[in-house]
Amino acid sequence: MLKIAYYYIRRKKTRSISLLCMLTLILLALTACIDLVKQSNQMEASLYQASQAAYSIRSKDPAQPFDLKQVQSLQDSQPNNQWVRFYEGNAQLSDLQAVTGSQIIQRDDLTEGLKNNVALYATDDSAKHVLFNSQVFQLVSGRALTDKDRDKILVHEEFAKANGLKLHDLVKLRPVSLEGDPADQEAVPFEIVGIFQGKRQEQYTGVSSDLSENTFFMDYLGSQALLMKGQNNQLTQLNGYAKDPQALQASFKAAHAWAKDRGQLDVTKDSQAYDQILSSIKTLKSLFHWVAYGVMFAGWVILTAILLLWLRERLYEIGVLLAIGRSKVKILGQFLAELVFLSLPALVLSALLQPLMLKPLLASLNFGQAADSINSLALKASTGLPAIVTLFQAYGLLMLIIVLAVSGSSAVILSKRPSHILAKIS
After folding, report:
1. How many whole angstroms separate alpha carbon 294 and alpha carbon 34?
2. What is the SS3 string spanning 359-420?
3. Element spanning 217, H or E
4. In whole angstroms, how far apart are CA 315 and each of 287, 320, 331, 426?
5. Each residue of 350-360: b (16+ CB within 10 Å) or e?
6. More reliable by pLDDT, 336 or 275
7. Which regions of 65-178 does DSSP assign to beta strands (E)?
8. Quick check: 369 pLDDT over 50?
9. pTM of the full structure
10. Which one of 86, 271, 279, 342 has the fewest CB atoms closer than 10 angstroms to its CB?
11. What is the mean pLDDT of residues 65-86?
């Protein structure tokens, strides 16, 4: 039976090549669908990490910071969460000049302590700050701030150009002095570890710290030493990050209940970016599943139709085989063997073409700030063991389609008696 199938393939080269191309296309489509379905199951986790979803604790009075001790009990009750501290304030440049720009409001009443000021955003992790996470500001050189930094700072590209600064130069800052001579305040040096660009929504109060170019980011501990003068652990915001969306929701509910007994603090969930993209991902996941089902059905219909046409051309061969006593099972087995033989080179071709398919498919979809994570997943999925597993899963589905297609196309003919088949030929 196998030998007959092999010789038939060799004898009918044109037909065999056409069928090989068809099987290769079906197998490639199945492989791509399985890849996309697998990736869709991992996209949520990638998006969650990229979106920096968290819940935030702030003072109900924006001008009034709060002490870390006020939230210590909440932190102790959620030990698995990551906590990032934020503090906002102003400082005065000691030996450098703030960038000047057009101001809607011009003030002549500024004291010396309110001149040459810059806006400070202190944090344990600048990459998690909303201005960087939302791509309002983008690093052009250097690195982000971490909780291991001390007396480190990020400056705006325009400020660095105006003052001839580069990475690792020092910027001296002192607290804003509303009364007296600002020179009496001790200046603290900060090392530049990163330079960024961008423009935030600016306020117009007539002071230099309103401008995006005069915006600095510094490490949290450095800000406390500079601005609070020993009153450490003052916060304007504390963010809690959980390992997954379900854990974040549970933590947020617990924090919201905790905050009800503390009238000065407010808890909000900062996951709008994640929630918006997640709805698109769920739609894509559903689409990928339906496309996979559609490819399987279309492959079965097309293959059945082609085999039905070709089997009608083999009526004489089928009638003779039945007349000499060949069982219908063996005839059906021969047809299956022919397609299995052709599926093997189709498997090899698909293995060569598979890595070229998934990444362009995902690249054509816009995932925003999670694109890098998803492209990384695509690269892993299109190489190594994951690619082999996916390919053989698709090959198993192809075998199922072949069995159903051969059975469906052969049922009409093999259900008849040999005499009826031969009579129809004559």
Report:
1. 12
2. HHHHHCCCCHHHHHHHHHHHHHHCCHHHHHHHHHHHHHHHHHHHHHHHHHHHHHHHCCCHHH
3. strand 215-219
4. 42, 9, 12, 11
5. bbeebeebbbe
6. 336
7. 66-67, 82-93, 117-123, 137-142, 152-156, 170-175
8. no
9. 0.62
10. 279
11. 90
pLDDT in tens, 137-173: 999 999 999 999 999 999 999 999 999 999 999 999 9
Torsion, Cα 120 124 125 131, to 10 degrees, reads: -30
Q: Give long-range contacts, CB 8 A cutoff, 24+ apart: 241-246.
A: 241/52, 241/53, 241/54, 241/81, 241/82, 241/83, 241/84, 241/128, 242/54, 242/80, 242/81, 243/80, 244/45, 244/48, 245/44, 245/48, 245/53, 245/271, 245/274, 245/278
* Measured distance CA(308)–CA(193) in Å, rounded: 71
> Are the beta carbons of 362 and 371 closer than 8 angstroms?
no
Helix (H, G, I), strand (E, B) or coil at 22: helix
Rounded average pLDDT over 388-405: 89
Nearest one of 412, 395, 402 to 299, comparing CA atoms: 402
Report yes or no: 170 and 189 within 8 Å, Cβ to Cβ.
Answer: yes
Look-up of token digits 């998006």: 47
- pLDDT for 113 beyond 80: no
Q: Tokens 């500024």: give the residue.
A: 110
DSSP state of 99: P
More confident residue, 88 or 36: 88
The span from the CA of 376 to the CA of 388, in Å, is 18
Tokens 């990444």 belong to 359
In 157-199 the beta strands, taken as DSSP E runs, fall at: 170-175, 188-198
Burial of 223 from C-beta contacts in 10 A (0-12 / 13-18 / 19+): buried
**Residues in the chain, how many?**
426
Please tell me what DSSP assigns to residue 165. Answer: -
pLDDT(53) > 80? no
Cα 344-350-352 angle, rounded to 5 deg: 110
pLDDT tens column, 214-264: 999 999 999 988 887 656 788 999 999 888 878 888 998 999 888 887 778
The mean of the pLDDT values for the chain is: 80
Under a CB-based contact definition with an 8 Å cutoff, are residues 45 and 244 in contact? yes
Q: What pLDDT does 153 receive?
A: 96
